[in-house]
Design a protein that fits this description.
The structure holds two protein chains of two kinds. Chain A is of the alpha/beta class. Chain A contains seven helices and seven strands, in the order βααβαβαβαβββαα. A seven-stranded mixed sheet of chain A has the order 4-3-2-1-5-6-7. Classes of the chains: A alpha/beta, B alpha/beta.
């Protein structure tokens, strides 16, 4: 069983990994150890693989540092659920194969510390007896996340997912 | 100049259907996609210029080589690498990383601007690499700064940039455009930073997410003011922020003929700002849209004042501060850190009495680059420090200790604050 870590709105990438803790500054350290190191020390100490982040609007605003979503990915965060994501964070997370879900209703329902299990293959989040549906991303992003990230996708398919307009 | 000219072949222009009124972003993305595009379209595009800096380039090189298995970059002529985020290296780790990037640039034939040359966004404009009509991506979120010269500039992370280095292509969703219509001129003591902060106040931190911004009514605004304004587009979530090329930009950078403001273009939203009523603005800790008039925070004690960054580290910013500080000394409880945006801007400030005035007043001058903006070196904030910065971000702990606090304001307010030790405007000191 995994747990929910709840965050407010406008969580910026400086909170996820401060610039001073970038891989560039600490090349011999695993960036996963720096996840929310100053902004949420409890998360930094206790978050484990399978846990879920549930946040307010505009999650991931600010810097383009990909090591912010990378730290969460390496930490094993199973899903991030928010009403909206900042643009660069969204791209970075999708490219790394980190599962993002835009689900405002679910954000209201899930509380700090709730015990949950994410079943990505079925796009479901299980909470006790209840099964919440996780809304799929747009096809383009979904194809990348399901491949495990853009590098895996491009290596397998030789290019970007089909784009339509 | 080896960057290719931004030609739009005639039959392509016809096919592109330029008759349909388009925003500047739609025009630039149509040309880059080779077909007419509309907001919401997903398109694969070939950028004209790609920038990498020292903070992410080591990881970009790793992804390109080790994960994508690509040895050569797509086209070194369309690339630039700038070492600015830690300039010069402050640790053995950053020194080693920079050496990896230097060796890579040499081996691949990529133009490299080494430590001390300046901030990527300033350098690419000075070197005339960033030009009107271009599609530019950079490994830095403030790559929206290139909108100052009428380019579509946008920030991306490690993997996206590695894919461009490897393939020359990327994907984008064509953004809708928000029109910011500016009326009037600045009052004395008010400058482009106050307008940029006012835009943050009005649009709010996520108000332009996924959108582009176009700033109108600023034909009279010099290039440096446009750089200040465009650099902060990302702070309201925007993908790009473009000032239509007019005036000095048109004279110096010769926009392509196809890049035209269409008055009938469709905008998602319009924001009108009247400069006649604009007072100096200050963003309070720790959110960039928590902006108020100077009078609301005047008197707040500070321990550090920082003049620099891609937003406000140019000659004109140093000049504005020097005019306030001329013949006076900063408050004994304040450290005034000055980091010129580039070596050329520093030299401009050396040619007249700007730099000597600042140093006479008690300022500390550091190597051109990003300086203390992200808390890594050259003045990192300690516990409970209160900093008034001319930068663009005041997230908690960005410049150092999590308990430190950051206010954002113009160079004029920064100089007056350094004099009084408390947040103040030039007419209060």
């Amino acid at each position: 069983m995994s747990r929910v870590w709840k965050f407010g709105a406008d969580v910026d990438t400086d909170q996820m990994v401060p610039g001073r803790f970038a891989p560039y500054m600490r090349p011999d350290k695993d960036v996963a150890d720096a996840a929310f190191i100053e902004a949420r020390p409890d998360f930094n100490r206790e978050a484990v693989a399978g846990d879920v982040i549930v946040a307010g609007e505009n999650f991931g605003c600010g810097s383009s540092r990909e090591y912010a979503p990378l730290a969460l990915k390496r930490r094993g965060i199973a899903a991030i659920i928010a009403p909206s994501f900042a643009r660069i964070f969204f791209r970075n997370a999708v490219n790394l194969g980190l599962a993002l879900f835009v689900a405002p209703d679910l954000v209201d329902e899930l509380q700090e510390g709730d015990q949950v299990t994410v079943d990505l293959s079925a796009y479901r989040l299980l909470q006790g007896e209840r099964a919440h549906e996780l809304p799929a991303l747009p096809d383009f992003a979904r194809a990348i996340v399901e491949a495990g990230g853009i590098v895996a996708y491009v290596r397998e398919h030789g290019g970007f997912p089909e784009v339509q307009s | 100049m080896s960057i290719q000219s931004l030609e739009l072949p005639e039959q392509q222009a016809e096919r592109a259907g330029w008759q349909r009124p388009m925003t500047l972003s739609e025009q630039i993305l149509s040309r880059a996609a080779g077909r007419p595009v509309a907001p919401g379209d997903m398109v694969v595009v070939a950028p004209d210029l790609v920038m990498g800096h020292d903070s992410l380039s080591p990881s970009i090189i790793k992804v390109m080589r080790d994960q994508l298995g690509v040895d050569r970059v797509f086209d070194p002529e369309k690339m630039a690498i700038v070492l600015d985020h830690v300039s010069p290296a402050s640790t053995v780790g950053t020194a080693n990383s920079q050496n990896i990037v230097r060796a890579f640039a040499r081996e691949q034939g990529i133009r490299l601007f080494d430590v001390g040359r300046g901030i990527c966004h300033q350098v690419l404009v000075e070197e005339r690499l960033a030009r009107p009509g271009m599609l530019i991506f950079g490994s830095d979120s403030h790559s929206c700064s290139y909108g100052a010269v009428g380019a579509f500039g946008s920030g991306m992370g490690t993997t996206d940039i590695a894919l461009i280095w490897a393939t020359g292509k990327t994907w984008v969703k064509v953004p809708p455009t928000i029109r910011v219509q500016v009326r009037g001129r600045f009052r004395p003591g008010v400058s482009a930073k106050d307008l940029a902060l006012r835009v943050c106040r009005e649009l709010t931190i996520a108000g332009a997410t996924y959108a582009a911004i176009e700033y109108h009514g600023l034909d009279w605004l010099p290039l440096e003011g446009r750089q200040t304004l465009a650099s902060m587009a990302v702070e309201v979530g925007a993908k790009a922020g473009i000032v239509p090329p007019t005036g000095v930009v048109t004279e110096q950078l010769l926009p392509p003929a196809w890049l035209q403001v269409h008055e009938d273009a469709v905008y998602e939203q319009e924001l009108v700002i009247d400069l006649a009523e604009l007072e100096p603005q200050v963003a309070r800790p720790s959110q960039v849209d928590d902006v108020c008039d100077l009078s609301e925070v005047a008197g707040t004690e500070v321990s550090v004042v920082f003049l620099g960054t891609c937003t406000n580290g140019r000659y004109e910013d140093m000049r504005a501060a020097a005019q306030v500080l001329s013949g006076r000394r900063i408050h004994p409880n304040v450290r005034l850190m000055i980091t010129p945006a580039s070596s050329l801007e520093m030299q401009r400030a050396m040619r007249d009495d700007t730099l000597s005035t600042l140093i006479d007043a008690g300022a500390t001058l550091t190597t051109p680059g990003c300086g203390m903006c992200m808390g890594r070196h050259q003045g990192t904030l300690g516990d409970n420090d209160v900093c008034l910065s001319t930068g663009n971000r005041n997230f908690r702990g960005r410049m150092g200790a999590p308990s430190s606090r950051i206010y954002l304001a113009s160079p004029e307010v920064a100089a007056a604050t350094a004099l009084s030790g408390r947040i103040a405007g030039p007419e209060q000191v």
